[in-house]
Amino acid sequence: MAAARSVNAESGREEKGPEGSCPESGPPGATIPRVKLLDTLVDTFLQKLVAAGSYQRFTDCYKHLYQLQPEMTQRIYDKLVTQLQTSVREEISEIKAEGNLEAVLSSLDKIVQEGKDRTEPAWRPSGIPEEDMRSALVPYFVQQRDALQRRVHRQEAENRQLAEAVLAGRGRVQELRRQGRARQQAWQVSVPGMVPGPRDRLLPLGLVLRGCGVLHVTDPQEL
User: Which member of 78, 104, 131, 220 has the greatest number of CB atoms within 10 A?
Assistant: First the structure.
């Protein structure tokens, strides 16, 4: 009975209160977290729901039962109100858990708070899809182009180093050939009347290999 009187008293206060009033109000200018605002909205909805289905209206619908057993009617009403409130709160809790609403609403509060500190205007679509797509994709393509250009420059530098190494190797080969021909000529001059034979044709190759350090020749007859 005490619970019933409490429910009725709350219902009566709700009916007498101003329409649309919130049971929890913060100081002016204060930002209420959206999670708390949702809980307050659910509580307000339940209060208005109980007020709409007050005990007086319930007895008006079941006059015969109320006249025969008023105490049982009161208990049925109290049980109905309690079960209704419990069911609604459980449904809201399941929805909040399935949608992860607490984390989402907290993240939204954080985004809104960070947006208040920004002085520049936020981005808004211009209404022209081509310009909106261009403004979104051009920075990405410019970034990709710069990355490709840096990669091309690195590859070009490596190619230049390889080309210089090839040219240096060709220069060393030509220098060895020149030294081989000079030694061949000096050797032919040191032996008058020497007619180059098959062995003499192999002499420049042997001198080149000797200059490279691959072959050590102490006597021309060894070739």
Answer: 78
